[in-house]
Amino acid sequence: MSKRAWNYILYFFLVSNLLGITSGCSFFASEGVAEAMVQGDETINTFYGEAEINQYQDGELLSKTNYKEWKGDKNKYRIEYKFTITDAYKEAVDNGLIKGEIEADEEIDVTNGDQLIAYVPAKDIYYIKPVSLADEVNPTVCQGINQVLRSGSLKEYALEFINEVSSSHDVTIKDNVKIGGYTTQYVLAVPKQGKLGEATVELWIDQDSWMVIKSKSTIGNLIVEQEYKDFTLNPRIDKEKFIMDIPKDAKVVHLDENLDIVNQEVSLKEAVDWLKVPIFYIPDEKVAKMKEARYIETSNQIYARVEITYLTPEGEEFIVQNMPSSKLQESFELNCEKIKIGDVEAIFVEQAPLKIIEFAKEGTLCDLYVKNGEISKEELVKLAEALEIKK
Predict the structure, then answer these.
(1) CA-CA distances (angstroms) from residue 314 to 286, 287, 311?
(2) Where does the chain cross the membrane (predicted)?
């Protein structure tokens, strides 16, 4: 699968639906209910854990990611992971469901707080990148305890999730559920009636530490499970663990060494000037009101893009993404349907919870997509037809 298509499907599925966290949301509204769940509130200074992420389709295992992670003081972090695909995954590749090849099945990432070094054994290459870009260049680094720490503590993370998901899901909590040697609080979040495109989410939370031992997200025929097989809070970790010695004769690739603009809000004129190609946008506020436009560039080896976020009159959010390209992405053909937007050839992709329309015109590749199922295909087509080009 191409890196771009993989990021579309997995980023929104794993992060938005599996974790269900929106940074900055208050968790106190649920604290009265959840306070009885567990006893502790462990602040993490250091951490070691071993976990795995499994992906299933129609009950068959597609892939497994095993990883070990360490957190040190002062934002030091290390993760070692190995990605394994199954025959079902290979069959999906052969049938055209998934395009492209796996770039690497094993990697070691180490950050000292300022930069991240990623070593790929299969290629014998060291990649060095600013830590501010690590999450987008390599989404794996977002996973696990690093994601939890953005909420402040294990307790805040768990309560924040329950508070956030309760607006769209019916939440049930069950005490004293045994899993993997831990006594957990089991949380089941089922989408409320009419909430299309939402995942059913299950959490198993350790009653002693608030640690999310296991999480499971189910949407349609897709399941993603993440489980810690072992973890230790605040262990002693050798500081040398966060140092990666690079051999003098090693092949090193520097990513974004001189990048000044990473993710910045821009005007439409600035968007055109910086992207250096025309951009598609919706000028009529009666159709959709622009929330913001952002210029994003994660590395010189990946792509620069402009993302314009809009709200429909009903309050539904969708995104128009522009990037330089003169043709559709062949690797993006995930059961796609060929359609037309005006006189332009386009493709429509629906891979729950996403719906995407993609077309290319005048040197610009435009993706119009919605992250959940609230906007129908027909409505998305009308929004695409309302796009105009700005040069």
Answers:
(1) 11, 10, 8
(2) 9-29
pLDDT in tens, 223-277: 889 899 999 988 999 989 999 999 999 988 876 544 444 678 889 999 999 888 8
Q: Spell out a b/e string for 283-296, using b for 16 or more CB atoms within 10 Å of the CB, else e.
A: eeeeebeeeebebb
Whether omega before 247 lies within 30 degrees of 0, making that bond cis, reads no
The answer regarding whether domain 3-254 maps to CATH 3.20.20.300 reads: no
Q: Where are the domains of the chain?
A: 3-254, 263-390
Half-sphere exposure of 13 (CA within 13 A, CB side): 25
Query: Of the CATH numbers 3.30.420, 3.40.1000, 3.30.390, 3.30.450, which one belongs to the domain with range 263-390?
Result: 3.40.1000
